[in-house]
């Protein structure tokens, strides 16, 4: 099983590097609209495929503590994003953001939610809770709808309300049958939804903002690495080349799908991009159930059923509304 996981991780590395290269070299001007939309679809699919396959990477490091993996995720993401910013001449966007104290405070807050989400996902995968992570990212779009209603004064359409209520029922079924809330799922969905809400209200370049958020986490990660990480793998000079490459690859696992998502968002409407978002948790569900043999209790399956039904209704309503607006 270990050999298979390492082989899959290698394939994931090759795929992510190819997509990352594609994102760097994709032309953004002088392309006909049809080709732009095709490129947007390719980038959207690539982003959600990589998010869905991310557990394979983290499983190859399950012998390493989640906090140590998190350190590498922050460090190498920061390095890769900095290189990308200079390579694509976005440094002015970073500087213009750094001179706005109010924006920096909000990015610091969003960095806290993002960091929590990153760490919890690593912990969930390496402690055999991929199904919970999958459920969390299925719930996330419905969390977004609920937060929009509460904080952005967005009114829920009738079928959106039905979808949210079905999701709530699905969670309550798990509470009644198992006697506990799906904490991991709700925490992943909630933290990413709140992060998205904060970023939505900030007029900041997406890549520049992500670099600043990573930079906020970087000093903490480095200090933690130097003073608190005390394991057989904490000193990279003593590690094998393959292990160090896996650590560095944490930066690609984190940033490559985000860069592809950004490229997709530039070329497609957000409602169109939204229809691809279920690729990620669906892949996680398949991996957890059929590859990593995580137990799927009947109550949890019922919860998934309610969430899936809610998402079908939500997606159908979104498509119907989008077509009306397009006409």
From TrEMBL:
Domain of life: Bacteria
Transmembrane segments: 12-32, 39-58, 70-91, 103-123, 135-152, 159-176, 182-198, 210-229, 241-261, 273-292, 298-316
Domain EamA: 39-173, 186-314
Membrane topology summary: Multi-pass membrane protein
Keywords: Cell membrane, Membrane, Transmembrane, Transmembrane helix, Transport
GO (cellular component) term, any one: plasma membrane
Name of the protein: Chloramphenicol resistance permease RarD
Gene behind the chain: rarD-1
């Amino acid at each position: 099983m270990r050999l298979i996981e390492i082989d899959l991780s290698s394939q994931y590395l090759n795929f992510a590097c190819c997509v990352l290269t594609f994102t760097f070299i994709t032309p953004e001007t002088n392309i006909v609209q049809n080709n732009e939309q095709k490129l947007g679809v390719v980038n959207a699919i690539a982003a959600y495929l990589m998010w869905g396959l991310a557990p394979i990477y983290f499983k190859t490091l399950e012998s390493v503590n989640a906090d140590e993996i998190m350190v590498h995720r922050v460090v190498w993401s920061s390095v890769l994003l900095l290189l990308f910013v200079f390579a694509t001449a976005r440094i002015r966007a970073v500087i213009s953001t750094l001179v706005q104290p109010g924006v920096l405070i909000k990015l610091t807050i969003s960095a806290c939610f993002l960091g929590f989400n990153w760490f919890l996902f690593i912990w969930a995968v390496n402690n055999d809770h991929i199904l919970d992570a999958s459920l969390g990212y299925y719930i996330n779009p419905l969390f977004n709808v609920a937060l929009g209603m509460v904080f952005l004064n967005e009114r829920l359409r009738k079928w959106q309300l039905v979808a949210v209520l079905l999701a709530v029922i699905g969670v309550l079924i798990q509470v009644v049958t198992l006697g506990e809330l799906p904490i991991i799922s709700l925490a992943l969905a909630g933290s990413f939804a709140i992060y998205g809400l904060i970023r939505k209200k900030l007029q900041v370049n997406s890549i520049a903002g992500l670099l600043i958020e990573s930079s906020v986490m970087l000093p903490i990660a480095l200090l933690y690495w130097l003073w608190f990480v005390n394991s057989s793998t904490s000193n990279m000079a003593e590690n094998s080349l393959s292990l160090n490459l896996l650590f560095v690859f944490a930066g690609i696992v984190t940033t490559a799908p985000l860069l592809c998502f950004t490229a997709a968002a530039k070329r497609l409407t957000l409602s169109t991009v939204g229809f691809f978002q279920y690729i990620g948790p669906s892949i996680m569900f398949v991996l957890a159930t059929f590859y990593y043999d995580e137990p799927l209790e009947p109550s949890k399956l019922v919860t998934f059923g309610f969430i899936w039904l809610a998402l079908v209704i939500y997606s159908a309503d979104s498509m119907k509304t989008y077509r009306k607006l397009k006409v």
